[in-house]
Amino acid sequence: MATLPPPPPPPPQELDVCGSDVDKVERINYKRTFPSPLRDLFRLCSLSAKLESLLSLSAGSTCKRKKKKKEKRSTIQQTLDVVGKRRLGVRRLNNPSDRADLAALASSRMACPRMSCSCKRRFVLLGLLLNVVLLVVCLHVDLIEFPWGSTSRLSESSCMQAGTTKGSDTPISREENVAPFPCSPHHDIMFLKTHKAAGSTVLNILLRFGQKYSLRFAFPRKTNDFSYPNFFKRDYVDGYTPGTHFNILANHLRFCHKELHEVMPVGTVYITILRDPGLLFDSAYHYFAHLVPFTWKLSGGLTAEEFLRDPSYYYRPSGFNAHFMKNLQAFDLGLDNNLHSADPHVDELIHNIEQTFMLVMISEYFDESLVLLKDLLCWDFDDIVYFKLNMRAAGTFQPSGEAYGRAQAWNGLDLRLYKHFNNSLWHLIRRYGIKRMHSDVVELHRRKGQLAYTCLERGGPVIAENVRNKGLQSWQPSGATSIMSYNLHENLSAELYESCRKMVMPELQYLSELGVSLWLTKLWSWIRELVHW
Question: Do 278 and 405 meet the contact criterion of CB atoms below 8 Å apart?
Fold first, then answer.
């Protein structure tokens, strides 16, 4: 007797990395298979698959039961068809009851596929919805150049190297009581907007100055930042083509001088701003602690002071958005935020920053910094008058003395940068002239007070609940209403109202008015509100 050949092997099935097949591959050891940045994405995929499985468990069981019933009814139908043809005959089909029985069997035979298709549609729609949410989470992530975790010093040094620059050792002003030389306003400015250091107020000043002189802004695509936290690339600029240059670039980015040098013209003035890390950490924690999901041991009620009692327990260097919780300013400057402050490379990095930035402003001496900026750029007082933007309500940002000291110690690299450039700022102030600086700061306060009396109701900011014009309301952290905004006088002339409105307009609204597409930022905000993230 001839033996039958063995059945062909089943066709290979494609592995669904973000689907239920993740659990079928012997529990893939992603800690060995994927580098640290991709492990977070893999966890997101696994979480999505498990969530989809849990949500569809009940419906899936129902579909299986329906499929079994369909197969059973199909077998019965085939048997009755044979019996009907053999025993009933054509004459018996004229019997109304027999026709009804056969019609009922035929309808039941057609009903099962409909129910099965409906169930499949529900599965498909549910899967699509979950994957759309996952896609939005991953959409703004550059998988080729992941910034999370430690960054090599080679990348940092290469990003700091570019064209000819002037350091802060170069005099930016004349000696005291010496008449200034004639000059014209500088129009080519790159401002590194560090997080939670009064950068929104400086950005507003630059936007108003650029509009005044019809300058060309370098804006990001679809969001209000240049694919942060990735290192800046020229391709992130909306409308960039090789050889294109812009006058002002000031949105959030991670600094890379080599790429910025290709976007900004020769002679661009580079400036930035730093803040005391003991105060900045509390503000950053208030804003960004909710942006570190899945890879952190943070509970909803954990305060900044509780975090600082044992930061090493909560902090994971390779975690998603880990840079928000340690040495944030160093990270914005393009440095490795996990670098120890005593590392011998820090001196070289500080020297590179000095050679690149002509002015490093200090948030605690904001008015003095603006006066130096005015002198550096040959601006007028009217160009630097401001109202504080994106500030928290009084009483919500005063860490205790113990927490302040722990925050400084935890952010040691930021503290070293802050101390160095705070000393540099006061060196420039003494060169500018102490009396002259005091006189200019008084003049700036006088003009600010005059405009506040003219433009603002009650002469200052109000809490979020009391803002009448929601178009002038600042963005609020998830679950909070602590960021203050302004109400304008209603009896202002059209021209004066427009000037006052621009001075108090929050960043997102101002960028939208200038034509920046923020659909991804708005979509992400909507999703966060939807899931209370």
Answer: yes
Q: Which residue has the higher pLDDT, 109 or 459?
A: 459
Q: d(Cα 430, Cα 176) in Å, to the nearest integer?
A: 9
Overall average pLDDT of the 275-296 stretch: 77
Give me the DSSP letters along 235-301: GGBTT--TT---SEE-SB-B--HHHHHHHSPTTPEEEEEE--HHHHHHHHHHHHGGG--SS----TT
pTM: 0.70
Q: What angle do CA 446, 449, 454 make, to 5 degrees?
A: 125
Nearest-10 Cα torsion for 240, 220, 355, 344:
-120
- Does residue 484 contact residue 463 with C-beta atoms inside 8 Å? yes
Name the residue type at position 429. Answer: I
Evaluate whether 262 touches 236 at the Cβ level (below 8 Å).
no
Residue 262: closest CA among 364, 369, 159, 177: 159
Q: What is the strand order of the sheet 359-362 is part of?
A: 248-249, 189-192, 269-274, 359-362
Half-sphere exposure of 254 (CA within 13 A, CB side): 23
CA angle 367, 372, 376 (to 5 degrees): 145
- Number of CB atoms found within 10 A of residue 85's CB: 11
Which residue's structure tokens are 């998603």?
320
Q: How far apart are CA 379 and CA 187, in angstroms?
A: 10
| Single-letter amino acid, residue 29 | N
Architecture of the domain defined by 153-171+182-383+402-455: 3-Layer(aba) Sandwich (3.40)
Closest-CA residue to 323 (of 334, 310, 313): 334
Q: Residue 288: which residues within 8 A CB-CB, separation 6 or more?
A: 195, 321, 324, 325
Question: Which residue did the predictor score with more confidence, 56 or 122?
Answer: 122
Tell me how far apart the alpha carbons of residues 511 and 519 are, in angstroms, rounded to a whole number. 12
CB 74 within 8 A of CB 108: no
453's tokens: 């009396």
Q: What pLDDT, in 10s, does the model give residues 110-144? A: 444 444 455 555 555 556 656 665 555 454 444 33
Confidence of residue 12 (pLDDT cuts 50, 70, 90): very low
For residue 307, CA distances in Å to 266, 311, 312, 408 come to 45, 5, 9, 13
Q: Is the pLDDT of residue 108 over 60?
A: no
Q: Is 410 exposed, middle or buried (0-12, 13-18, 19+ CB in 10 A)?
A: buried
